[in-house]
Write a structure and sequence with these properties.
The complex is a heterodimer of chains A (114) and B (111).
Chain A lengths: L3 E4 L2 E4 L5 E7 L6 E7 L5 E8 L5 E2 L8 E7 L2 E6 L8 E8 L6 E2 L3 E5 L1
Parallel strand pairs in A: 2-11
Antiparallel strand pairs in A: 1-3, 3-8, 4-5, 4-9, 5-6, 7-8, 9-10, 9-11
Chain B lengths: L2 E3 L4 E5 L4 E3 L2 E3 L6 E6 L5 E7 L5 E3 L5 E5 L4 E6 L8 E9 L2 E4 L3 E6 L1
Parallel strand pairs in B: 2-12
Antiparallel strand pairs in B: 1-4, 3-9, 5-6, 5-10, 7-8, 8-9, 10-11, 10-12
Classes of the chains: A mainly beta (114), B mainly beta (111).
């Protein structure tokens, strides 16, 4: 149990376009979902925390207009990178948790902006 | 403020040898502690977690970790490493909605 999926696993886009990444909890209802960014050979950097039906809470330094997060249901959260630029290229990982429970991670999405 | 320190950036062990990855934490209350493993290009997989009770925790893939409150440590161990254990290992502390990760320890396994 506690499986989290992400789609797509890899995406290449042109600079200036928007990209949407989906995160789904497949076998449990996630009250909270998290979005992380990971640079090569580094740890995870928390971008935002979202609760179903509420606005996401962004970490300091993360542009909320750049990284739009929607948590429409207890099993789905989406991250949209708007007007993507090459510096947005990264590995994006989501995780999901039940109340006061463990975070379960998705497999990650590799974004490359040309 | 809570924080996690993984003192070893990179560790190399021979296949079949024992392994210990260190993790020290700073936390104001009784911590929830986790170890995750990440293979290249993949997400994080939970190895084990400690919430309360027995301070020696068994996890998947033959890993175990011991919570030592007096040393603020939660070191990960495995008695005999397999080549497939080569990966990045992250220690984390905190509740599910406020988790802090260490910088990670990269494990290389020599044949």
């Amino acid at each position: 149990g506690a499986v989290v999926s992400q789609h797509p696993s890899r995406v290449i886009c042109k600079s200036g376009t928007s990209v949407k990444i989906e995160c789904r909890s497949l076998d449990f209802q996630a009250t909270t979902m998290f979005w992380y960014r990971q640079f090569p050979k580094q740890s995870l950097m928390l971008m935002a925390t979202s609760n179903e039906g509420s606005k996401a809470t962004y970490e300091q330094g993360v542009e909320k207009d750049k990284f739009l997060i929607n948590h429409a249901s207890l099993t789905l959260s989406t991250l949209t990178v708007t007007s993507a630029h090459p510096e947005d290229s990264s590995f994006y990982i989501c995780s999901a948790s039940r109340i006061q429970e463990t975070q379960y991670f998705g497999p990650g999405t590799r974004l490359l902006v040309l | 403020a809570q924080s996690v320190t993984q003192p070893d950036i990179h560790i190399t062990v021979s296949e079949g040898a024992s392994l210990e990855l260190r993790c020290n934490y700073s936390y104001g209350a009784t911590p929830y502690l986790f170890w995750y493993v990440q293979s290249p290009g993949q997400g994080l997989q939970l190895l084990l977690k400690y919430f309360s009770g027995d301070t020696l925790v068994q996890g998947i893939k033959g890993f175990e970790a011991e919570f030592k409150r007096s040393q603020s440590s939660f070191n990960l161990r495995k008695p005999s490493v397999h080549w497939s254990d080569a990966a990045e290992y992250f220690c984390a502390v905190g509740a599910a909605n406020d988790m802090r990760f260490g910088a990670g320890t990269r494990l290389t396994v020599k044949p």
